[in-house]
Amino acid sequence: MRKISIYSLFYKSIYSFKDLAKFRFLDIGKTIKYVFVLAIIYFLPAIIKLLLIDRDFSHLTTNFDKGSLVIIIPIYLIFTYVLYSGLLFIKISFLAWIASLLAKGVKRTLPYRNAWRLTAFSITLPTILFGLFPLFRIDIPFGILYDLAVSLIYITLAIFKMPRPKK
């Protein structure tokens, strides 16, 4: 399980609840690396929309000339990526707490550290979908609630694939 690639993790996180349940035993380093890669994938549509489609830097360029934009735009993009990554880590931490409570409710053993890892892989599909919607100019009212709901469905199905503790 240690030799599994990020691409395999990404692919299996989209469709296999049994593999999601197994991923809770991966190293925390690989899980954190996966979350940063997921943040990049989540952030790419925003970059594409900003740089290639809209090309609207008016909210950044009120007091700057064209030469300063060469410095300002990369700093803005790095800051925004760090913000997206931080929000993703907060989302995973919150959902991991809910996953721990849910696992107790269905009588499965799931410590918080394993719930965090399970949640990090379970949010793959909703994160990708809701990251792509702004690129295609799809506006979903209360999109955050739908994102959380789909994430919780994935987490719940992965928890049900975990084996029951032996008596």
UniProtKB/TrEMBL annotation:
Q: Does the keyword Transmembrane helix apply?
A: yes
Membrane spanning stretches: 34-53, 73-103, 115-136, 142-160
Q: Does the keyword Secreted apply?
A: no
Keywords annotated in UniProt: Membrane, Transmembrane, Transmembrane helix
Q: Which InterPro entries does this one have?
A: DUF1189
For this protein, the record's Pfam families field holds: DUF1189 (PF06691)
Q: What is this protein called?
A: DUF1189 domain-containing protein
Q: Which organism is it from?
A: Lederbergia ruris
